[in-house]
Amino acid sequence: NKKDKKYSIINIGKPNLDSKTEFEVMDNFVYMTRIKPDKIILQYCGNDIEGAATANGLIFEGFRPPPEINKVLMFIGSGSYFLNYIYFLYPREHMGMPSYISYLTKAYKNDNILSKHKDDLGMFINYAKGNSIQLIVVVFPFLTDIETSDSMYVDDIVKYFSDNHISVINVSPLAKGIPIDERIVNRNDSHPSIKLNRIVAQEIVNKLQ
Length: 209
Known about the structure:
Oligomer: single chain
Shape: globular
Strand content: 5-15%
Strand order of the largest sheet: 1-2-3
Helix content: 40-55%
């Protein structure tokens, strides 16, 4: 508003969506509300390929507790929000994250899966161009391992949107200069911190035409 550009912002994000279902949610929202957006801001994360991977036979079996965990404590804790809260106050890297990263790496290296995934992303591009809407894509790396993220998917996805003349914000260079404990929420929540979100928000404002 300081730039005399007033926007009404509608957040239709939902958890656990891949790129295809994100488009379906957006398309359904526009159909049901008859609200045609002037701008679309799409947040991209490394797990957005999971739907295309699953549809093409590459399935992640899920995060599993370690086999050596005490079964009695697991039984008691599984029914208690409080005990779960206490347990997850401490980092639980053994809960399956390495195997999940390996799974995503296989997905991005699979030409067929990646091609199908880009087809899903292409629906946003076609919709935006077909309706004269500015599309801004914000590509987030895994904030605790930016270098791995860049080589796995960030560089390729950024190039894909740039080659299609879409405004894209690569969060990797924005986050690299920030210490890890300042760029994420906390040790158990690697989502972007308030500090990083503010930086990304300013980049979005700068991209608005």
